[in-house]
Amino acid sequence: MLRELFGTCSVHRVALVEGEAPIAYGLIRFDRAYLKARKRLFPNSRSFVLGGCVVSLEDRKAAVRYCPRCREAERAWNEANPGRK
Predict the structure, then answer these.
(1) Which residue range forms the structural domain that includes residue 67?
(2) Dihedrals phi, psi of 82, to nearest 5 degrees
(3) Among 25, 28, 51, 74, which is disulfide-ready with 45 (CB 3.0 to 4.6 Å)?
(4) DSSP-based three-state secondary structure for 12
């Protein structure tokens, strides 16, 4: 956790980069397998931001700091596990 505060991915040991991610509104439920994989393989992908239940018509994207290798790992996991997010 401290590494992320200083800008380094705890899994891949690479610098986090600034970017954007879509905001997902509503009650989002995740598959257990996805949550386990996210914790171990791509904790800093930040490919989306949870926006809660109150939908903002103005905010569709959020600024994030993410690990490019985590995003690659998440993409690969999603391709290998279709429909399990």
Answers:
(1) 2-80
(2) -60, 140
(3) 74
(4) coil
Specify whether the CB–CB gap between 42 and 73 falls below 8 A.
yes
Could you give the C-alpha distances from 82 to 44, 52, 56, 67, in angstroms and in order? 21, 25, 29, 22
Cα 82 from chain centroid (whole Å): 17
Tally of domains within the chain: 1
**Is residue 15 pLDDT above 90, yes or no?**
yes
Residue 17 lies in a domain: yes
Report d(CA 11, CA 3) in Å as an integer: 10
Over residues 31-71, the pLDDT tens digits come to 999 999 999 999 999 999 999 888 877 879 999 999 999 99
Place of tokens 């596990």: 81
DSSP per-residue codes, 23-60: EEES-----HHHHHHHHHH-TT----EEEESS--SS--
Note the pTM of the prediction, 2 decimals. 0.84
